[in-house]
Design goal:
By secondary structure, the chain is an alpha+beta fold. It has two domains: 113 residues, Alpha-Beta Plaits (2-Layer Sandwich); 67 residues, Alpha-Beta Plaits. The strands form three sheets. Strands 1-2 form a two-stranded antiparallel ribbon.
């Protein structure tokens, strides 16, 4: 192994992963905004903290090719650092949280870690009542009816207003995709 370069980084990354595990990911997610590498896009299920993701992802396309919904796409034309990395663009095609979540085991680099469905955290839906059709008296229920996580993530409160449950929302983007209002009343943002 050389003294510098990818092998050295990989060695230390593996050492940290083995010794600190989830704590390192948790801290990485909290700190990355301060070190200049915040998450720019929704990443596929199981994505590790953004700074580590960018260093780890091979940009091989395995997750893109195996996604049955074709929700995972390569970023193109943004920056050298981001180009080729996988992302989900919820307005075009959200993650449908398919059976088996095959993108995670298809990742050879470890940029996507196998994660139980209920622990996936791609993003978090944010609701704005102003553009919501329900605010104008329409009986729209699209976001709640189509949420793959059901009432664990999205429901109507006692007043009939959409309520996002932070603990249950995995940030798949289905609610945003199905929302008929313009601008969208519900949008998935990064956690």
């Amino acid at each position: 192994m050389s003294a510098d370069g990818p092998d050295r980084r990989r060695f230390f990354r593996q050492l940290v992963d083995r010794t600190l595990g989830h704590a390192a990911d948790y801290v990485g997610d909290r700190v990355e905004g301060f070190v200049g590498r915040p998450r720019h896009r929704l990443r596929p299920p199981g994505a590790i903290a953004e700074a580590a993701f960018l260093d780890t992802c091979y940009r091989c396309g395995n997750c893109v090719g195996i996604c049955p919904a074709r929700a995972i796409q390569h970023i193109k034309g943004e920056s050298e650092e981001l180009d080729g990395t996988p992302a989900i663009f919820a307005d075009h095609q959200p993650c449908l949280v398919c059976d088996g979540l095959q993108c995670m085991p298809a990742c050879p680099s470890g940029a996507l870690k196998i994660t139980p469905r209920e622990q996936i955290a791609m993003g978090l839906a944010r609701f704005d009542p102003e553009p919501c059709l329900r605010t104008g008296g329409e009986a729209c229920t699209e976001c709640v009816d189509t949420c793959p996580e059901g009432e664990r993530a999205l429901r109507f409160n006692d007043e009939g207003v959409v309520e996002v449950l932070n603990e249950g929302c995995i940030g798949c983007g289905v609610c945003q995709w199905r929302c008929p209002s313009q601008p969208k009343a519900i949008v998935v943002q990064l956690r």
